[in-house]
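Async update (no meeting this week)

Hi team, since we skipped the sync, here's where things stand on the single-chain job. The sequence we agreed to prioritize is pasted below, unchanged from the tracker. I ran it this morning and attached the output directly underneath so nobody has to dig for it. Comments welcome in thread, and please keep replies under the output.
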Amino acid sequence: MQEVGAMATRRRPPDGLFVLADAPVAEGDTVQVTGKVRELAQQTTLDAAAENIAVLSSNNGLPDFVIPDPS
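Output:
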């Protein structure tokens, strides 16, 4: 996506950290991940092998969804 105007002059906050791995994790899992961090298509990614992902706990409640104030 190409930004124009005022948004083009300031950096957007990150959307999150995208973990690229084939691992058996589920929504609500708390995980510990070890891997290589890099930028890919303007996204911060973490490349990790499945053996470098540990599920610490499961069935955790998810935080409430919040829409950030853009100002």
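Quick observations from my side:
The chain has one domain: 6-57.
The two ends are 20 Å apart (CA to CA).
Reply here if anything looks off.
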